[in-house]
Amino acid sequence: MIQIQQSAVDSSLFGPSSLSKSQEKIFEALLKSPKTYVYQNKHQLLFEIILRDRIIHSAAALAKSKARFAIFRFSKCNEQFWVRNELGGFQLRKEVLPADAINDIFVNSHLYAFECATAIVIVFYKAVLDVIDRQTFNTLFSNLLLYDWHVDQDLGIKTKKGEDYLPGDCLYFKNPEFDPQTPQWQGENTIYLGDGLHYGHGIGVTTTEGIIAALNRRRKKFATKSAYLVPQTTRVDFAYLSKFASNLEHYRLPMNNEYLITGTLGSATFLYW
């Protein structure tokens, strides 16, 4: 359910063809949610729909990229843009603009390797960069560090309990009996793409059951407890970030004619544009 101030919103809020197909799905998911989502104005709601859409597309782009999964010890980055610190995190070089460094991960993806939490953060940053002004992005995130869940406070990431899973959310799958020799598989952070599909760095794009099956293959011997989806959501602060987006008309239709299409063949899931 959606409310703008005290008034309930229905499907007629946006005119015909004013949203892309993927944006319409997000709007419908918000409308059908048992939870009430409250916005100060139409701009806030539209911003969240558009940013969620860009989160999905950024996750799909990372899934199609050559960026590899690696634990912190073996992480890699393009050192023209980042300094790899002793913990395996990536610190932005002082002479580099944040927008250029985030975009490079997608342009020169073959130079990067990181684990799943860092992948989620990268997706969030890229999506925000796609929606707000580049100069504003550089100002807000001037001292970027990509390391696990260490994020700039302006991203406003928060985790809340609940099963109101929406496209563009980060979800977490816990693996209670993971193999202690591979602790990186004690769980998997994913971006929920909608339609029952997730992107998990190191696993790829697959269904809820596919993520659970992948984690179950990485349990200790004689394990009996299955991996499971934790009832929680992790999101950026959509309302706060909406203050930095002045004109959203450009983003109401897919950028560069991008349409995210999914298909399956056996147990594999494919992404197309």
Element pattern in H and E: EEHEHEEEHEHHEEEEEEHEEHEE
Distance N terminus to C terminus?
A: 30 Å
Helix content: 25-40%
- Report the total helices: 7
**Contiguous runs where pLDDT drops below 50 for at least 5 residues:** 252-259, 263-269
Count every beta strand, where a strand is a DSSP E run of 2 or more residues: 17
What percent of residues are in strands? Answer: 15-25%
What would you report as the Rg, rounded to the nearest angstrom?
Answer: 19 Å
Strand order of the largest sheet: 13-12-11-10-14
Give the mean pLDDT. Answer: 90
Tally of structural domains = 1
Q: Which term fits the overall shape?
A: globular
Helix and strand composition category: alpha+beta
Main sheet overview: 5 strands, antiparallel
Summarize this, please?
With 273 residues, the chain is α+β, with helices and mostly antiparallel strands.
